[in-house]
Amino acid sequence: MQNLNSYWEAGVSWASYRKQIDDLLLEGKTTNADNSPAMLEYAKLNQARMRRLETRTELLPEVLHALQAMPKNIKILVIAEGWCGDAAQVCPPAELLFQALGIESRYVLRDADTSLIDMFLTNGGRSIPVFIALDKDGNLLGEKWGPRPVALQELRMGWIKEGLPYEQQAELLHGWYAKDKTESTQHELATWLKGLSQAR
Questions:
Q1: Is domain 5-199 classified as CATH 2.30.140.10?
Q2: Positive or negative: CA dihedral 171, 176, 182, 187
């Protein structure tokens, strides 16, 4: 069984992750070495998205009901970055769900140590966010979840095949998230969590 406890120990809480992003932006920096104007603009937009979702996301009653018997002796390790649009859309509702369930989570930056993300590639790429479940000793449980809901992932693959410019893809992606109102994220995370508990 694969043990990832060293990565867990290197992770930080959601509050610390958010503070790190905010503090770096005050210094004109992002969570990786690319502090270009374009990357800083992405990071600022995503900071605003996270703030909005933290305050406005409503957890779905059916999701909470489905997970009420969820074991609390698992922990979730999340690979993310402050400049990442999908992480900004997915992590806040996910964190609210974990907190409601009493499940501990920690966050690690993808580019700080790529050895972790390289174990959890998506179609050969380092897409984030990635959610990894561990038991109390740090052993890997089941498959990862991420980087985005299945329906959106399929759309994104189509946009890439069509050769749409990145800016157009980003506009379509965030438009999808806005219409979905975190519902797909919540439902898919619930299915993932239930699968983990049943597989143990």
A1: no
A2: negative
**With helix as H, strand as E and coil as C, how does the chain read?**
CCECHHHHHHCECHHHHHHHHHHHHHCCCCCCCCCCHHHHHHHHHHHHHHHHHHHHCCCCHHHHHHCCCCCCCEEEEEEECCCCHHHHHHHHHHHHHHHHHCCEEEEEEHHHCHHHHCCCCECCECCCCEEEEEECCCEEEEEEECCCCHHHHHHHHHHHHHCCCHHHHHHHHHHHHHHHCCHHHHHHHHHHHHHHHHHC
**Starting at the edge strand that comes first in sequence, how are the strands of the sheet with 140-145 ordered?**
104-109, 74-80, 130-135, 140-145
Mean pLDDT value of segment 20-24: 95
Tokens linked to 77: 């390790």
Going by their DSSP bridges, the two strands 74-80 and 130-135 should be labelled as antiparallel
Spatial separation of the C-alpha atoms in residues 27 and 59, rounded to whole Å:
34
Domain ranges of the chain: 5-199
Whether residue 133 contacts residue 104, with contact meaning beta carbons closer than 8 Å, is answered with no
pTM for this entry: 0.94
Write out pLDDT tens, residues 141-174.
999 999 999 999 999 999 999 999 988 999 999 9
